[in-house]
């Protein structure tokens, strides 16, 4: 009987079987790569704003407290952006003729809020409360990256669910003294004789990257804060905590 298929057909058949077996895995890896790419997560991508606001200038150089602009961050679920009146409390006296600040002046004159582009946002099906995290000693940089070093604001972390769960399952690695949430920015001011000199290793890492691996001694302190706050670790990973 004459041979129907060419010998090369064996290679194609083997390749097809391999592709059939590994295809789903390859698709999963490709999908994961796409979903975690910066163009999808927007991490590090500067948002186009009506006014080029520099956190580095206002926080690290001028020493303005975060709460001066984000006044509700300690008591509200949302940090909120400042009203134009807050901006004009300074800029009615300095840089009064700067072309860059014309949108601010117009907003103030017309009593029309500035339409800032939102940089950080969780999905609509996720409940997040800023105030409870601040009251548990979590510094802004842990979630938002080194904000005080940003000339123009960009998203610092991807906000993946597994990233949130890492904190909720191991709160002792993150909770801290609430009084230190904002004080480390003062200790890390630029242009001062004590710049970064008084910072603890954890504070230095948080300022530089927002990430720190605690030592056994630091973890023991974290456990003490967990106990003091009355945090119930087993409940923190329950679905209803974030999905209500």
Give your account of this protein's structure:
- 45% of the residues lie in helices and 0% in strands.
- It is an all-alpha fold.
- The protein folds into 3 domains: 8-36, no CATH class; 55-81 and 119-241, no CATH class; 83-115, no CATH class.
Summarize the structure.
The chain has 244 residues and is an all-alpha fold. The chain has helices at 8-36, 38-41, 55-61, 66-69, 84-91, 102-110, 130-134, 140-144, 161-169, 183-187, 201-208, 216-229, 233-236.
Question: What labels would you give this structure?
Answer:
13 helices; 244 residues
Count of domains: 3
Order of helical and strand elements: HHHHHHHHHHHHH
Shape: extended
Reported for the largest beta sheet, the result is: none
How do the helices and strands line up, and which of them pair or pack?
Layout: H1 8-36, H2 38-41, H3 55-61, H4 66-69, H5 84-91, H6 102-110, H7 130-134, H8 140-144, H9 161-169, H10 183-187, H11 201-208, H12 216-229, H13 233-236
